[in-house]
Amino acid sequence: MFVSHLGQAVHAQRFDYAAHIDHWGSRPMRRGRAGTELHREVAEVGLTGCGGSHFPIAKKWGPVLAAGPGGTVVINGAEGEPGSVKDAVVMQTQPHLVLDGAMNVAEIIGARDIIIWLEESAHASADSMGKAIAERQHSGDPLLPITMMWAPSGYLSGESTAVIAGVRGEPVAPTHTLDRARPWGHDLPILVHNVETLARVGMLGHTGAGEYPRTVLITLSLSIEEGVLTDRRVVEAGVSDTIGDVFDRHGVDAASWILLGGFAGTWHQADQARLLPLAPDLLRNNGLSLGAGIVIVVPRGRELLPQAAAIAHIMAGESAGQCGPCVFGLPAVAKALDRGRLGDVMDLSMMIKGRGGCGLPDGVLRMVESAVDVLQEKVGADDGGVSHG
């Protein structure tokens, strides 16, 4: 799909514009009927957002189209999730595929400009995207005005309402919105899309629905120590694959636990997780998600509870400081995990859940509750289980 053979690690080989044209061809314009056709194909292949929400892209465009032309498309490359580096890899290997996708979307919705939203530390990604823009300009290919904007490093800098606030020159923090389908309010639309999402729209514009590759892009972290990730690699797999298939291809054979979906994801015993599908719709049917495309492996011999506690502390430190559930609730949960007081953890979770100003508290609580559930399941299995005959 990107620069790798299916199932292999994605290596940092950058496609310049000449290589991009040689591989994908020139980008067809997507105004009018051609844009309507691509919109239909986006719905046909079931493309969903790759930044964690997995909301259908074709539906997301509906309110933007209804609002009329003149808005902005944001390439959201603020990859604040500690478990993910796939957007950085995509920007540094296939920047023109990202630009193709952004231009496709801009033409479909009648946008007036494009913004590249990056964390202030993302120098390599900024360099690659800047070179791509210069290569397009040198070739004479038309581009809408493109601006690069910098976000403070942090988990919440890539949250969509925080991005919209930053684009408007306001503090970069999640904001409450009455209409989640129109988070920009009554102003001109600001449509925020994750980097991989736009790369896939760009790809679909070249291949059409019939030849579009049904794959999943994953950041696979093969080691975690007290919430610190090492050996992160970006891999591509087919939607018919399982996590076990990915593990077999990449030599993962000594794992105790996995965290599916990143620091706001769900814990699983590694041997059971091998059977989980990678297809987003199949995971969703089981109440699970890859989130931003993240699988974190805890090596054999490491305990689960200290890992969950360390992540809870890290995520409590990512708070925007705007509401009590983050400021007071998450540190209390992390301390209860430190002490192994699982009953207190669940009581606190019931008090906090659904009361945050953004999705951060609920995401952390999902991770914490799943750790408790998995530990209890393991204790039950080790004790011979409970008969319900």
Low-confidence stretches: 3-8, 384-389
CATH architecture of the largest domain: 3-Layer(aba) Sandwich
- Percent of residues in beta strands? 15-25%
The strand order across the widest sheet is: 6-5-9-7-8
Overall SS class: alpha/beta
Say what oligomer this is: single chain
Number of helices: 15
Portion of residues within helices? 40-55%
- Main β-sheet, in a few words? 5 strands, mixed
CATH topology of the largest domain: Rossmann fold
Q: What is the CATH class designation of the largest domain?
A: Alpha Beta
- Could you tell me the radius of gyration in angstroms? 21 Å
Give a written overview of the molecule.
This protein folds into three domains: 195 residues, Rossmann fold; 88 residues, Ubiquitin-like (UB roll) (Roll), CATH 3.10.20.600; 78 residues, Up-down Bundle (de novo design (two linked rop proteins)), CATH 1.20.1440.230. It has 15 helices and nine strands. Helix 2 crosses helix 8, helix 13 runs antiparallel to helix 14 and helix 14 runs antiparallel to helix 15. Strands 6-5-9-7-8 form a five-stranded mixed β-sheet. Strands 3-2-1-4 form a four-stranded parallel β-sheet, sandwiched between helices. The N and C termini lie far apart (50 Å). Strand 7 and strand 8 form a beta hairpin. It is α/β, with parallel strands linked by helices and 389 residues long.
